[in-house]
Amino acid sequence: xxxxxxxVIENLFNDEEFSNIFNDKMxxxxxxxCLISESMYALMLVTTLExxxxxxxxxxxxxxxxxxxxxxxxxxxLMRLQYKRK
Length: 86
Prior knowledge:
Blueprint (H helix, E strand, L loop, with lengths): L1 H12 L2 H4 L8 H7 L4 H15 L16 H16 L1
């Protein structure tokens, strides 16, 4: 499931809309951190994950730390999936 979350994020970041704010030399973590200043794109990432995995993040989960690195986004997504299954 971890790989699926990463794949969804990578696919979104390869979308033409996102390519306008990223450069080829940026790591996935750099791209996530860049989203903090691009609220529309940050929202697109969150809603894409929610739609793809049929989950809903609490508002207080979506903060600067959420976008700090790929592992954090994946872990929070996986936690939501576990919570959903209970």
